[in-house]
Recover the amino acids of this structure.
């Protein structure tokens, strides 16, 4: 499909490289044979030099994190509905819809694959995920500005995000109806008794 | 470290093959360079023929699932304390201790890596994880036999197991104290209002 040595026909723009590399990662993740997701394999598939990938992303983990966060921002947006309960429910609904799709499950797989094997990769990866964590933090800040009392960020991770990830990883379908609302009820109706979280 | 072509010195017993292959998976998972976890690489490291791996496990996903479940059964046991709360708390304590260790985090990474890329691999993997799910089901059945009213299995997955996995995947340390008890309180103190779960 792609040439091994991309001839320097027209030099790809920075945005074209990014787009081709992202698509190559998605394609390789989707390979039913379980293709190896190495930087040389990604570079070959994208038709770019592997040194461009190292230069731009630093590590495979950082690249995977960038792909995941970019897709999540598109497919699993954080909307402003006017209330904390509304924002969290809309977010959980998008999440449930996402993990019902093969690509949504692949993205969760990519999150796990992006787990850092080295301290350097850990730092590069963390930068990307911070974009996502900050988005959830914005929901909390909007709620606080309205006078609502949002749960701590870690409690939102534990009770709303974690169940969706686990189900995607284990292939356990969410209940057919009412699951986003159930998760939000568990989170908002029963504040933790101690300030441990 | 391992010879490329293991000479047929002494034929390995079935248990020796299993042990060598499991150790090779752990070693490759621990590689700070992020070694590729392919069956040929695992076979070479273990000093066994890669056909033995395919014959015994069927797929890379099934092998990873077997390694993970075997280690979890050892490091993260399900004990009988006499009460549902005691059993779940002991289980959560072992889980928190496990994800504080590098190997515990690697195992969670391996769970995600074992996500099936094909329907066949999905079935082979599911067989291994059923061992683990059945162990949690036994906790529920013991509780029911004592006259306790255990939450549904999926709620235990959502509220007790999922937060531990998410924290291992994202590298978010659990709170220093009281976290197992906090998770169990959330699970047992606030039964779901609707029978949706």
């Amino acid at each position: 499909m792609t040439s091994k040595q991309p001839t320097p026909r027209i030099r790809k723009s920075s945005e074209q490289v990014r787009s081709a590399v992202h698509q190559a990662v998605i394609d390789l993740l989707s390979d039913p044979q379980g293709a190896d997701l190495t930087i040389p394999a990604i570079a070959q598939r994208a038709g770019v030099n592997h040194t461009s990938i190292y230069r731009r992303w630093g590590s495979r983990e950082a690249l995977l994190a960038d792909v995941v966060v970019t897709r999540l921002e598109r497919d699993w947006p954080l909307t402003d509905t006017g209330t904390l309960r509304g924002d969290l429910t809309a977010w959980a609904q998008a999440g449930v819809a996402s993990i019902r799709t093969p690509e949504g499950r692949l993205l969760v797989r990519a999150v796990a694959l992006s787990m850092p094997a080295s301290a350097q990769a850990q730092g590069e990866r963390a930068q990307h995920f911070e974009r996502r964590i900050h988005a959830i933090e914005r929901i909390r800040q909007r709620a606080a500005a309205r006078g609502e009392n949002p749960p701590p960020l870690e409690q939102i991770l534990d009770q709303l995000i974690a169940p969706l990830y686990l189900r995607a990883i284990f292939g356990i379908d969410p209940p057919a109806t009412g699951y986003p609302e159930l998760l939000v009820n568990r989170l908002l109706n029963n504040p933790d008794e101690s300030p441990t979280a």
User: Anything to note?
Assistant: Chain A touches chain B through 51 residues (CB under 8 Å). Chain A is about 70% helix and 0% strand.
